[in-house]
Amino acid sequence: MASPAAGGVVIVGSGLIGRSWAMLFASGGFKVKLYDIEQQQITDALENIRKEIKSLVQSGSLKGSLSAEQQLSLISGCGNLAEAVEGAVHIQECVPENLELKKKIFAQLDRIVDDRVILSSSSSCLLPSKLFSGLAHVKQCIVAHPVNPPYYVPLVELVPHPETAPATMDRTYALMKKIGQSPVRVLKEIDGFVLNRLQYAVISEAWRLVEEEIVSPSDLDLVMSDGLGMRYAFIGPLETMHLNAEGVISYCERYSEGMKRVLSTFGPVPEFSGATVERVSEDMCMKVPDDPEHLAARRQWRDDCLMKLSILKYQMQPK
Ligand code: NAI
């Protein structure tokens, strides 16, 4: 358990992502204060976290070495931001993805924090140079972008502002490791960071293949879920190259011409509109009707799968 001297963590915004962060930090032994502009959100978050932790115990997937009760006792609500941040080592902002709102929150924090605390945003796509420029504490600012659901998908992209101090990156990296997440250092900010750039590259080619009637939408998805995705849950595309030949050098020697030939046939950025939207939607709705109940049930199934996968990944760690 983190010693009390290690200081606490503040979550600003107690919605979906704020609640997940709270559970993760508590699993690492940190005291967590949940702040929100809406008192009701804090109350709901605390109740929801209690239920979630209970079901994690039942499924045997509670993280960390502390008991459920110990973890719950570390999380409390606070309706006053200045009070919440007192003595904190890390502040994780989780308000909606709106640049003006986030800038307002960071300007507010900038006025009340000391020179030691890390100011971290959960933003999925807002660039640090847009979020943090002009702040007195810009050296302490960073984006720590989680992946939904963060409790089962451990990746966190750490994205610095050009003026972020190396120590801020290092401390955030160490903190993420401590709570069992899998941080990656994005060395320079870039639109889409890394995860969404990869995701959009895949979506883009998937869309073109369906648009050109090469494959049906459902079969396209199977190529990922029963093909590439099986492997990608354990090794990335670069290690795949390494293993699919006698190392990366050999892979490039053997396959680079073929890769370049195929890549040169990729089409332009799709419009994501018109008849293809109808076709993809029709296929997806046959599998999962797009009403709230069916979507929620399918998300629950996805999260259950991810939970089991995270257990398997833990068991299968290379010796
Ligand atoms: P959400 O809408 O579930 O929660 C936002 C919370 O912020 C609400 O509780 C709201 O009351 C609170 N809030 C609004 N204004 C506030 C203020 N001025 N001060 C304090 N609290 C305030 O949003 P969600 O989904 O949790 O997203 C939060 C951030 O995490 C966004 O930047 C989003 O892009 C990012 N993110 C979301 C992911 C997702 O799948 N939902 C995945 C990765 C990152």
Task: Give the key terms.
8-stranded mixed sheet; disordered N terminus; N-(1-d-carboxylethyl)-l-norvaline Dehydrogenase, domain 2; alpha/beta; 2 domains; 319 residues; binds 1,4-dihydronicotinamide adenine dinucleotide; Rossmann fold; single chain; 8 strands
Proportion of β residues? 5-15%
**What is the CATH C level class of the largest domain, in words?**
Alpha Beta
How many helices in DSSP terms?
13
Fraction of helical residues = 40-55%
Termini separation: 25 Å
Content-based structural category? alpha/beta
Mean pLDDT score:
96
Domain 3-hydroxyacyl-CoA dehydrogenase NAD binding: 9-189
InterPro entries: 3-OHacyl-CoA_DH, 3-OHacyl-CoA_DH_CS, 3-OHacyl-CoA_DH_NAD-bd, 3HC_DH_C, 6-PGluconate_DH-like_C_sf, 6PGD_dom2, NAD(P)-bd_dom_sf
Domain 3-hydroxyacyl-CoA dehydrogenase C-terminal: 192-277
Keywords: Cytoplasm, NAD, Oxidoreductase, Phosphoprotein
